[in-house]
């Protein structure tokens, strides 16, 4: 298999900030070369995982994440909804499967799920699993018991992003702490659920902050199995959207974004690195560079939770031009089991 042409790099959790900063500082071609080698050593060279994300409960969230239009603190006019009906969620999952997705991610705009919501959540997980897709949920903070309930239901992944560097956390969110995030991640790990954890760049941070963000992920005792790297989509009415609108910071430089992806790939070689929010405004060439830098997972469809996404047609056309194929579920299982 071409995936094993290079020796598989050691998975380390002892990265220093200096080492990570030095990777960011490499000449671009050297960085991409190293990232591509790390990628090929642990993953299929030209396969990209397709996941679909569904908002199962939109808006009205009491948290004040400065980037999010679902917060009650944002003035975006987004209408809050109740938790979706289980049947409607399963219908959407069936459509995603027909469109080629192998993972179905369900997101609810909550600070944390209430225990009364758990039976419906459990039914959703079980229903999607029965279709043969991997399941992922993002529901906010979890207690140990809730994490165990989700594990017993068969949940494959739990998404809980660290968002940004620890030292910058309170500039982005004030209603919870970085430590709160880590605590939920620990509950998820202890319950035996795979972790999906990344964050957002382009929030006006410095490169040192991006170093701190990757460092926080790459020094977790066990690396997240999935690492979503988002580029901020500045939405008017959100704190960050209003702050960054019409400034040169409104969109992260694409080369710097590719560098961030490459550093994530090198420091977390066995993880799936996912391009998430912000992909719709990226050029095809920038996305191609992200794949070269080791990104091997994307969200499909026209929408992420509430913001626009690239759309299936554009993705299919790009994949054809790049000779990239959707990753088969069996391939991931095989690699994960090795
Ligand atoms: S990112 Fe999640 S937790 Fe934060 S405001 Fe939005 S929905 Fe709530």
UniProtKB/TrEMBL annotation:
It comes from the Bacteria. Catalyzes the conversion of dethiobiotin (DTB) to biotin by the insertion of a sulfur atom into dethiobiotin via a radical-based mechanism. GO terms for molecular function: 2 iron, 2 sulfur cluster binding; 4 iron, 4 sulfur cluster binding; biotin synthase activity; iron ion binding. GO terms for biological process: biotin biosynthetic process. Pathway: Cofactor biosynthesis; biotin biosynthesis; biotin from 7,8-diaminononanoate: step 2/2. [4Fe-4S] cluster binds at residues 61, 65, 68. It is an enzyme of class 2 (transferase). SUPFAM superfamilies: Radical SAM enzymes (SSF102114). Keywords: 2Fe-2S, 4Fe-4S, Biotin biosynthesis, Iron, Iron-sulfur, Metal-binding, S-adenosyl-L-methionine, Transferase. Its cofactor is [4Fe-4S] cluster; [2Fe-2S] cluster. This is Biotin synthase. Residues 46-270 form the Radical SAM core domain. It holds the Pfam family Radical_SAM. It comes from Rhizorhabdus histidinilytica. [2Fe-2S] cluster binds at residues 105, 136, 196, 274. Transmembrane segments: none annotated. Binds 1 [4Fe-4S] cluster. The cluster is coordinated with 3 cysteines and an exchangeable S-adenosyl-L-methionine. HAMAP family: BioB. InterPro entries: Aldolase_TIM, BATS_dom, Biotin_synth/BioAB, Biotin_synthase, Elp3/MiaA/NifB-like_rSAM, rSAM, rSAM_sf. The gene is bioB.
